[in-house]
Design brief:
The complex is a heterodimer of chains A (about 210) and B (about 400). By secondary structure, chain A is α/β, with parallel strands linked by helices. Chain A is about 35% helix and about 15% strand. In chain A, helix 6 links the parallel strand 5 and strand 6. Chain B is built from 13 helices and twelve strands. In chain B, the strands form two sheets. Chain B has a six-stranded mixed β-barrel with strand order 3-4-9-6-8-7. In chain B, strands 2-10 form a two-stranded antiparallel sheet. The chains are: A alpha/beta (about 210), B alpha+beta (about 400).
């Protein structure tokens, strides 16, 4: 957070195609979070390019980046990051709200997303009234609501017990069956989680150590 | 995201922490209420003064000796000269008066009150009505008849639960018969109310009661002139001054040994005092508003810091900086607007309560004051909400998401 700059990624060259299911794995400090932030348009590379849907997004303004995140990226965080004071459905609605979709349409979209993650009967619950697994499902519904090209999950099972974690991983797989063109990128340090993906990119010291497609 | 949506989001955030929102508003509520109430009070006082003067006759002119000039005095002859249409064409009625405080006793009661020696026209000129009897007549004045008109309260003090009319009283040592009791006037601005006075013919007062005054028997304390109308009052003031200067043999450059004051100028000087008072009170309210505004800023900064993670999440899912900025700014504006409305309601309640417990004067809530207070509330929301909102919008999403 200080002013000292630190080069975290050194000439990473990575191409991910639409519809892929990729796990990015690496120990903490390897640079995988930075890579994820760049992919998610939360951060810009200081040098080099990042192309999303053929478009160079490295030099976009804050406002344009926000639009890219809103339209093309669905985030799933380790600790869910739901807003605690509003209902699950309102949480899921938020990206659609920022996209400028009118209320009635938003309601339908958020309901559909909640049904996709198996929580069609929990629309009015507050996040804290739900279990950890359910909260993560709400977060996934929120990521899905704007039909993004990329579902970007950062340690999605990190705060869950192994059984619930497995259910979330099952959910990712079924989501990709339903949405074949959606890319899923999973960032994790857990090899068991990474093994569920079809392609595993391993990062070490800011470089790609291996890139294995199963 | 549309403005309406942003308002919705702002309400959502504010209702999640109701107590804090209320406490934040309190400063503004008090500030707005203070401004509105103080201005309403000022307006009430102004109306009260206007009303008192209206009951008094706004075209009355009072002439008194100039106390800064040694041996200055007015006489009954000055009064006659002013009454002469040749000298002052716009003078409708001229009433000389002699006044002083004396002991009055009757019916076993003894009190000290203001005795006013006047001519019979005094009562018509000052719109004084009677609940018992009537005025003494001009004949009574000319014949030095020992008669008296009692003020409403004086009659009550001397003759509680009795008819005062026809009774005999002792003014100092002079016996006099009560011929009338005035109706109740209430308090009358700067001068003593007629309720507390006793009127006797001026001739009686000059010779029998207050003869040992400086200036001799013929001198009078003041002369009151009623002009034809408020419009001619100014002309009459000038004519009176001219007449008196000639009569008193004043040379050019010599100071007037008398003072001529019309009610209009007295009213305007009183009004300007009220105005200054109002500005002063409004300033106090403004300081309260300022303090309230700083409170808003303080809470909004805490609010933004506390919600760093939320801001990070909102940015990650697609909120652009301008939307975040607007959201927090509108939260501040909504808080101050609500506070403004509450403040106006509070001031209205205070005014209603004030009006129900007393009737002497009536505070009036002025629409301009309400508009001003509300406008200032919105302004405060913008001014003190802007910095926290900018802080929120400038947060880096990556760092905000990492915030514990």
């Amino acid at each position: 957070m200080g002013d000292n700059s630190l080069t975290v990624l050194h000439g990473v060259d990575l191409m991910i195609r639409a519809g892929e299911y990729v796990a990015i794995i690496g120990p903490s400090g390897s640079g995988k979070s930075t890579l994820m932030n760049v992919i998610g348009c939360l951060d810009k590379p200081t040098t080099g390019q990042y192309r999303l849907n053929q478009q160079d997004v490295s030099q976009l303004s804050e406002k344009e980046l926000a639009r890219q995140r809103n339209k093309n990226i669905g985030f799933v965080f380790q600790r869910f990051n739901l807003l605690g004071k509003i209902s699950a459905q309102r949480n899921v609605e938020l990206p659609a709200q920022y996209a400028g979709i009118p209320l009635s349409q938003r309601r339908a979209l958020s309901q559909r997303a909640m049904e996709e993650v198996g929580l069609g009967d929990r629309l009015d619950h507050r996040p804290l009234e739900l279990s950890g697994g359910q909260q993560q499902r709400v977060a996934i519904a929120r990521a899905l609501v704007n039909r993004p090209n990329i579902l970007l999950a950062d340690e999605p099972t990190g705060a869950l017990d192994s059984k619930t974690g497995k259910e979330i991983m099952d959910l990712f797989e079924s989501l990709q069956v339903q949405n074949p063109s959606m890319t899923i990128i999973l960032v994790t340090h857990d090899h068991d989680v990474a093994a569920r993906a079809k392609r595993v990119v391993s990062i070490r010291d800011g470089l790609i150590a291996s890139d294995i497609t199963n | 995201m549309s403005l309406l949506e942003i308002f919705r989001t702002a309400f959502e955030s504010l209702t999640t922490n109701k107590l804090r929102t209320l406490l934040t508003m309190l400063g503004i509520v008090i500030g707005v209420a203070a401004v509105v109430i103080l201005l309403a009070m000022g307006e009430g006082v102004q109306l009260y003064i206007d009303k008192q003067f209206a009951g008094f006759g706004s075209n009355l002119i009072t002439i008194t000796p100039n106390l800064k000039v040694p041996d200055a005095r007015l006489t009954i002859d000055d009064s006659r000269a002013i009454a002469d249409k040749v000298n002052v064409p716009n003078a409708r009625r001229v009433v000389p008066s002699v006044g002083g405080e004396l002991k009055i006793s009757a019916n076993g009661n003894s009190i000290s009150r203001n005795i006013n020696g006047v001519t019979a026209e005094n009562f018509a000129m000052r719109n004084i009505g009677f609940i018992q009897g009537s005025s003494f007549s001009q004949t009574d004045v000319e014949n030095h008849n020992r008669v008296a008109v009692l003020g409403y309260k004086v009659a009550q003090d001397l003759f509680p639960n009795q008819i005062a009319l026809g009774q005999n009283i002792l003014i100092d040592s002079l016996p006099a018969r009560v011929v009338g009791v005035t109706e109740r006037k209430g308090s009358q601005g700067p001068s003593t109310s007629t309720d507390d006075m006793i009127f006797v013919p001026i001739t009686v007062a000059q010779e029998k009661l207050l003869s040992n005054r400086p200036g001799g028997v013929k001198s009078v304390s003041s002369i009151t002139v009623e002009a034809d109308s408020a419009a001619t009052s100014n002309q009459a003031v000038n004519d009176i001054a001219k007449t008196l200067r000639v009569r008193h043999n004043l040379l050019a450059g010599q100071t007037d040994d008398f003072q001529v004051q019309d009610q209009a100028s007295l009213l305007s000087s009183l009004s300007s005092i009220v105005n200054i008072l109002q500005i002063f009170l409004a300033l106090i309210g403004a300081i309260a508003l300022l303090v309230g505004g700083i409170g808003i800023m303080n809470i909004m900064i805490v609010n933004v810091t506390e919600r760093t993670r939320e801001i990070g999440v909102r940015k990650a899912i697609g909120a652009d900086p301008a939307t975040i900025r607007l959201q927090f700014l509108i939260e501040a504006i909504v808080v101050t607007c609500l506070a403004g409305v509450l403040g106006i309601v509070l001031s209205w309640l205070c005014v209603v309560i004030t009006n129900s417990v007393q009737t002497t004067f009536t505070p009036v809530i002025q629409p301009d004051a309400v508009a001003l207070a509300f406008g200032v509330s919105v302004f405060i929301g913008i001014v003190f909400g802007l910095y926290p909102a900018i802080r929120a919008s400038n947060m880096e999403p990556v760092e905000a998401l990492r915030y514990e």
